[in-house]
């Protein structure tokens, strides 16, 4: 997600896993297969198998209190839809 929306998204999630941020982008770590064939609204990109790029000099800005490093994908998707003004689209 573009960094301009990062703090708003993070503050609206009921629970968040590891979140990395650079000057331009924020990355939420979700479990493998979390896309559930959902059409993620722009400007957000769901990137299966993506690696947080070292070139952007990301920093860990959120570490979860729980035992899992992941952000639950469905609440993440719903909050992204809310912030972008997009109706959720279930397959």
Q: Averaged pLDDT, please?
A: 85
Number of helices: 2
Major β-sheet annotation: 3 strands, antiparallel
Query: What's the total count of β strands?
Result: 3
Helix content: 10-25%
The dominant shape is: globular
Features:
3-stranded antiparallel sheet; 2 helices; 91 residues; alpha+beta; single chain; 21% helix
Walk me through this protein's architecture:
The longest helix has 12 residues. The chain is globular and about 35 Å long. The chain has 91 residues and is α+β, with helices and mostly antiparallel strands. A hairpin with a 4-residue loop joins strand 1 and strand 2. The protein contains 2 helices and 3 strands. Helix content is 21%, strand content 11%.
Compile the SSE list and pairings:
Layout lengths: L5 H7 L6 E3 L4 E3 L30 E4 L10 H12 L7
Antiparallel strand pairs: 1-2, 1-3
Write a concise synopsis of the structure shown:
By secondary structure, the protein is of the alpha+beta class. The protein contains two helices and three strands; from the N terminus they run H-E-E-E-H.
């Amino acid at each position: 997600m573009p960094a301009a929306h990062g703090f708003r998204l993070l503050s609206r999630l009921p629970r968040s896993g590891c979140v990395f941020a650079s000057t331009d982008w924020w990355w939420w770590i979700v479990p493998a297969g979390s896309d559930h064939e959902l059409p993620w609204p722009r400007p957000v990109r769901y990137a299966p198998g993506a690696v947080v790029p070292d070139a952007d000099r990301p920093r860990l800005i959120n570490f979860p209190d729980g035992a899992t490093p992941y952000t639950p994908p469905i609440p993440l998707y719903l909050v992204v839809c809310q912030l972008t003004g997009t109706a959720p689209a279930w397959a």
